[in-house]
Amino acid sequence: MAAPVLEVKNLSVDYVVGAGTFHALSEVSFEIEPGRVLGIVGETGSGKSTLAHSIPRLLPEPPAKIRSGEILFRGIDTLKLEKWQLPRIRGTGVSMVFQEPLNSLNPAYRIFDQIAESVRIRQLRETGKMPGILPAGEPFDYSKRDPPKASDVLTKPLVPSLPSKRLRTIIKADESMRREVLEYLRLVRINDPETILTLYPHELSGGMRQRIMIAIALSGRPSLLIADEPTSALDITIQAQVLTLMKELMSEVRTSILFISHDLGVIAEMADDVGVMYAGHLVEFGPLEDVYENPRHPYTKALLRAVPNRYKTDGSLPSLRGTVPNLSRIPSGCPFHPRCPLAKPVCSKDPGPALLPAEGSRIRGHLAACYFSKDVEALP
Amino acid sequence: MAVAEGRRAPGSAGVLSGPMGVRRTLRSLRPGLRGFVRVMRANPLTLLGFAMVVVIVVLALLITILPIVGQALLGRPLSILPYDPAYYPSPCPGPIVNNVTVCSLPPSAQHFLGTDNLGRDMFSRVLAALPLDLAIGFSITLFALLVGGSLGLVAGYWDRPGTIGGVFSVMILRLADVFLAFPSLVLALAIAATLGRDLGPSLLAILFTWWPYYVRLVRGEVLVVKQQPYIVAAKAAGVSDVRIVLRHVIRNIIEPVLVYFTLDVGTVIVTFSTISFIGVGVKLGVLEWGNMVEGYQTYLTSYPWMVLSAGAAIFLTVLAFGLLGDGLRDVLDPRSRRALAQTAVPTTLPIAAVPAEA
């Protein structure tokens, strides 16, 4: 088995602010194997985004403070890098798609300039003119991709139009760059990419902007793509389009993906593996089907039970008593014990249960942080 | 610039270096020219301000350059001024009132703004002072922008407490606070009075009090911009900090800063004139508007056109830059530029024909 692209070991992150110290992540450990999609699911405030931002070290430090742990990205401990070295692993190593497509593009530059910047950074690194991590050995060849799909047909201009004056200046400026940028726009199924090149971000819709963001992230040819709730800010039909696009891209672009979402359905659609987070702890981790069908942590079970899967059920949707704990005062032991139907006195003792192979699951790699994981099945 | 860009190999080392970032920022402003005309059309006051600034600048250049060019080509100085500003007829041809010859003539077809107490043409004198006043306004603001602006950029972008940048940031800001604690005019007067009455010292005096405003302004804008998701996104794409500042931050703070800069040219001219008026600015007799107002104030009641024409020159110059500054924001912002362009002239671009979401 190939070495994992990303290994996170016992990562703990605090936010030190005036009101106190908030433990956003506590002892989180997991790894991503090459080409796999890991979905991280959890409620608001469970530390998903902190996790996503801590991998390329994009957390504002301070207030954030990485208390302990290791983040091994292709063997490099990013926590040991100097601040000025960090740009070298970003872009061509780790790339990110953010939650806010509306503000994630620089309003002052045309789409062409924004994608070209990322392409240019990769080219400079590939030619050794700028230090930086290179795309992994994994071939990343678009020419060998599947025959055009129906959606590709739409990426040709609907009406052939004379290039505008603005377009001509771009063509003159850099023909090879333009071709490369167009390739990435086509990759994300942008209609009439020749025109889009010359537009400013405010002239595009949210879904289009998110596709551009995906194109920018992919143009660095990263080994790891982190998608931090990429569809949360979009309305439901556009969400479906972007998800379909990402799903299709996964087969074309062999990149490992860390997909973060609060939506169990989205994760079910996208991920190979899934990690469930609660109050900064990774409480369950394993292959998607096994976690969904055979949850081994009472929180996962409760979360899955709360999904409205049918419209004609009787009675109200089941809910979990209590609320998510304040991150500055996480309960001792297992963070879930005050709300857990299985809780016993041992659960409140420090240190809490470690993430270990779950009892009662035959699948290797299905981990749960619960002393009574074999009793979870008996829960309603 | 596009040609130079094309000659570069797509991966040459210079592309990501500092000056390139600046050049890119400049290049991104170029589409502004196209929208410029449309914004002007939609906003007549800005057009007026722009036209006035153009006239002022052209006049100043002509007044400065023509004598030199004339000397070099024709062997005699050329000038657009109707009279030599220092020439006075002796004896002056004015009427005799109470046995005294009145040299100061009211405005007429010969002397548009009248003549002063020695019979010198006011119009020529006011115009002759234009290059100096304009140069003072531009040089001080430009220098303050460069000094204060770059300090503000550093103080705003690298301001995390506990880092070297954070320490620098605090030092810069406290120093700026010290200067801002004094009323700027009083401080400038004090410095100018200490250094002596001349052009150089008074320029230095204003400059000393002027840069902290740009530190504050630029730092404030940088603090807002650097929190924007697109800056984080640029970081995530592997862009280095220096390049983020040069390419992404500067381009997004340039609008308010340029607007402030334009308005400030007028403010500096007023401030310098004030210093001259009080008597610590340029040397006596130097043609400068504040100096002229000071020299002629004795005749305010009897021959008001002398003071008024110098005052009007200050007023018109400041007004021109003020009007231009107000409209400048619309020109520089791609959003309002495009919006205005679309309302003003129906575009033939197929933008509207493309469905946003297929």
Give a brief rundown of this model.
The complex is a heterodimer of chains A (380) and B (358). With 380 residues, chain A is an alpha/beta fold.
List the main descriptive attributes of the protein structure presented here:
heterodimer; A: 380 residues; alpha/beta; 8-stranded mixed sheet; 4-stranded antiparallel sheet; 12 helices; B: 358 residues; mainly alpha; MetI-like fold; two-stranded antiparallel ribbon; 13 helices; 2 strands; elongated; disordered N terminus
Written description of the protein model:
The complex is a heterodimer of chains A (380) and B (358). With 380 residues, chain A is α/β, with parallel strands linked by helices. Among the domains of chain A are: 113 residues, no CATH class; 86 residues, no CATH class. An eight-stranded mixed sheet of chain A has the order 6-7-8-3-9-10-12-11, sandwiched between helices. In chain A, strands 2-1-4-5 form a four-stranded antiparallel sheet, with helices on one face. In chain A, a hairpin with a 2-residue loop joins strand 4 and strand 5. Chain A is globular. About 7% of the residues of chain A have low confidence. By secondary structure, chain B is an all-alpha fold. Chain B has one domain: MetI-like fold, CATH 1.10.3720.10. Helices cover 68% and strands 1% of the residues of chain B. Chain B has 13 helices and two strands. A two-stranded antiparallel sheet of chain B has the order 1-2. In chain B, strand 1 and strand 2 form a beta hairpin. In chain B, helix 5 packs antiparallel against helix 6. At the A-B interface, helix 2, strand 6, helix 3, helix 5 and helix 8 of A face helix 1, helix 9, helix 10 and helix 13 of B.
